[in-house]
Design goal:
Elements lengths: L8 E11 L3 H11 L4 E11 L13 H12 L7 E6 L7 H15 L4 E4 L4 E2 L2 E2 L3 H11 L5 E2 L3 H8 L6 H9 L5 E7 L5 E7 L4 E7 L8 H14 L4 H19 L17
Parallel strand pairs: 1-2, 1-3, 3-4, 4-7, 7-8
Antiparallel strand pairs: 5-6, 8-9, 9-10
Helix pairs in contact: 1-7, 2-3, 3-4, 7-8
Length: 270
Amino acid sequence: MDASAAKPTIIVVSSHVADGSVGGRLQAFVLERLGFPVVFAPTVTLPWHPGRGPGTQIVPPMLAFADSLADLARAPWLGEVGGILSGYLADATQANSIAELVVAAREANEALLYLCDPVLADHDGAYRPPSVVAAIRDRLMPRADNATPNRHELALLMGQRPTDNAALVGLARRSGAAEIVVTSAFAEEGQIANLLIRPKDAFSAVHAALPEAPHGTGDFFAALYLAHRLGGDESAEALDRALNTTLHFVELAQGRDGLPLVAHQAMLFE
C-alpha cells in the first residue's frame, strides 16, 4: 500500500480558477501533494482571481450542482472520505447541497472533519451578496468542525463589528462551528494575530505583517490546517504548522500575485 492510500479522501467544494494558485484548484493541488486523495467539486469556473479584474464566470445550474453533490453523497466510497472543505460559493443555494453532503458523509464516517472557509470579505468589505452570507451562516457554520474566517468575514456572518480579540472570541463561540481559527485578528501595529478559539479556551499566534501578501493565502492556510488535523495534529500544533508554512510561501512569493506552489512544492513537507 502506498502512502496516499493510508490517508482519507478529502472532498473540496470551491472555485476553480483557470489561471492562478487560488481557490479549490490550489487546495486540491496542496492536499494531493500531501498524499490525500481529492474529489474536487467546483462551485464556479473563473479565468483568474477576481482581484485581477472582470472575467467570465461559469456557474453550474442550480439543479445540476445539487444532483452532482447528491451523487457524491451516495457514492460507494463515501466511507473513505475523512474531510470536506468548502470555500467560495457562487450561489446561496449551493450551501444546501454542501450541507446535505456533510450530513451523508458523517453518517458514513463518524470521524469526518468538515472545514468551512467562508470566503466572503476582506479589509475592503464584503464581496459576496447577503444571500450567500446568510446561507453560510445558517447552513454551513453550524455543521462545521473547523472554520477559518478572517475577522471581517466573522463580523459579516455575525452581523456585528468587533473592536478587539475578546469580541472576536465571543462571536466565534456563537457562530455554531466547533473550532475556529480567525485569521487577520487584532494585533499591535506591524503585526497580525491568528486566534484559535475552542469551546473552553482560546489563544493567539502573532507574526509580523508581511506587505503585499498574494492572493490565495487564506485558501492555502485552510487546506494545510485541515490536512494537519486529519493527520492527527492537535489544533494548536495544526495552527502553528499551517501558519509557518503559509508565511514561508508568502515570503517566497516576493510581491507576485500568486503563491509559487509549483516551484517550491517540496517545501510543503518541511
